[in-house]
Design goal:
seven-stranded mixed beta sheet; two-stranded antiparallel ribbon; 9 strands; Rossmann fold; alpha/beta; 2 domains
Length: 253
Amino acid sequence: MATGRKATRRDTRAVNAVARAWITAVRARQRARRMLGSAAAAAGAEPPRAELVRRLVPGRSFLDVGCMWSVDGAIAFAAEQAGARSVTGVDLMAPTAAFEAERARRGSAVRFVRGDIHDAGVVEEVGVHDVVWCSGVLYHAPNPLLTLARLRTLTTEQLVLATEVLPELPGLRGACVFYPGLDASGRRAFAGRRSGSERVALDTPFDAARGYENWWWGITPSALEGMLLASGFEALERVVSPFHATLVARPTR
């Protein structure tokens, strides 16, 4: 039994070392590209949100899933301004004071629904929309396939899905990392150095009581596209950098 535990610890250390080497190499390439100001770095940048909204939204109904945290409904208001036929935002959070103030200032008709899209009743209340925007949500979901299934139910024309990702693992397409299963060394391998808000289950140990605040999954772009395909979407456009991906997808069934 003791021998088995030692072997497990040894294997874990080896896997963590590989993860550190993989992520460190990708970050080093990123820094080099930024320093050189290369076209490759620019090509991998996150697409301007305003450009996507202006291009996809006019004349269509628009839904922003996860519209409140850190953005206070900004995408929903941008969609309304861009000529959306109707705009809805949904979030587990209550509407922020900043959201309510901006809605009043604009005389906005943006509808807000408080609830969890994994709840079938919330999906029914929100209703289907032509264009669905979902940013910064998927890696916080314990079951991303369920999240995508709900997004498919809500989407009639196009889904804009923006999420944190992991770089592709050479030789292994479709890879994912389940962050709650990592020990402290494993978390450090993937966390890197980053300022800003605390990432639960990545910067700190997993905390079941904090639910969706946890970072549950590190998803590679190939895994993300596979999940979309399995959920009834086809990716039409993709902008992928080592740690972020934005995809525009259409329903296929």
